[in-house]
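Work Package 3 (structural annotation) set out to generate three-dimensional models for the target panel prioritized at the project kickoff. During this period the team completed the workflow that converts sequence records into discrete structure tokens, so that structures can be stored uniformly alongside our sequence database. As a representative example, we reproduce one entry of 489 residues exactly as it appears in the project archive.
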Amino acid sequence: MLAIVVTLGVLIYFSASGGMGSLSQGYATAMKGRANAVSEEFAVEQVTFTNGAEALPVTLTNSVASATPASFQQMVTWDPATYSTYEATNLGNVRFCATSSCATPLYSWLESCSGTCSTGGSTSTTATAWVNLGSLTVPASGTLTVYMVFEATSTNFDGVYWGEAPQLSPTYAQYDNGANVFAAYFDGNTPTSDFTVYTGLTLAQAASVAGPGATTINAIALTGTTGAHVPFFSFNTALSNTGLILESSYTLAADTADGTGISGLVNSATATSITNGVGVGEGFGGDYFFQASWAASAPTEPTNGAGAAPAAGTWLFSSLTYTGAGETSFYAQITPALYGTPGQTAGTGYSGTDTLTNPLTAATNLYMGSIGGSAAVDIEYNFMRARAYPPSNTMPTASFGTPSSTSGANVYVRNVGSASSTLVSVYVVDQTTGAFVGQFLISPTVLNVGTFVDIPYTTLAFTPSLGQTYLFTVTSSLGNSVVYDLEAT
């Protein structure tokens, strides 16, 4: 038997093979659905457009059985020419993010780009950035995926989430956000009030210095005479006493033929209160390289001096690796290239490992500083930084996926009725041209009373045209709908 019942404006069909009982049950179900339809009400509160960004998955693979620590600085090296379609020539439109939508940007710092990065980034063949992963970690023997997002090519460095080494900017340190990326950091523009220096030394900001790579930079200049083997200076950012790697870009403006401390870790933010530390330097007896320790205010310097010091004004990099409070040795090097492999010659730099009774074991906090000799000091810094020691000294590797578009719209819908709704689709029409953009199906999304949902651009994926108005029609499983229009800007 087929019964057709018309009541309260609702057309209801029953296939009543089960008799009147089935008919009554079907009628009751229909009436419940109708009641929900009457009380169902939802509204679009906001629409936002995402236009033109491309998201490149970057998979970080940790090969060791220890996770990276929080706020870990991850090295990412890539070939900019591969992604030249998406890049601004100076790479200023890049952002590293926790998600493809870049809802959570990660603080990142462009260290280098082959060629002239300020004018030819997209034709360069290699670029290196440091990405602070924040609360994200690369699990032990596992992977983590972050995203390199390419914004519109008109987008530039913001100097907050995406910056670059100070000498790379058109104006020195214009976009340098190293302080947001590294555990401790200073460049040539850092206020001198952030340092303390030993008696007899002066620390100042020096302008128009001949910098690395034929650049003109500002520098932090340390000059004067201490009259003793002492800690030269301390930078006031406190570091946990854990594994750290220190690196600096520096030059000896004058070689005094005495031990000039370049970079190190010390146990006080006040230079005259330092009692313990480790460091790397050059100049002792004309040496290119030495390591020093400072235990109970007594120096051991140098421990492994080597080679003839380069000419004054030569820009070099120093590096010191400290694995934590339990270590009994530390590794250091001085090289012309930051990641060069020292060959124990003047052209390639020098390195060494010093075995010691660790003077820093009891320190709660460590500070960037240096330990040096007694003669005149004349050193200039482009930057110095401290970053987290990778697990087992093994940096997770980075591999790249395929860029995917992040164009589309996010639609925010709130339930303002007295019954839950199940959203099932969104229709999009370009009102400016009258063109139907598409019907976008949603995995049935229950919207409880008073709650809201974000229908993301990954679901509503299309390329909006700036200046054109789009109409969005959100529908529920009960056939109700609501419309909202907005101009794409």
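The longest strand covers residues 376-388.
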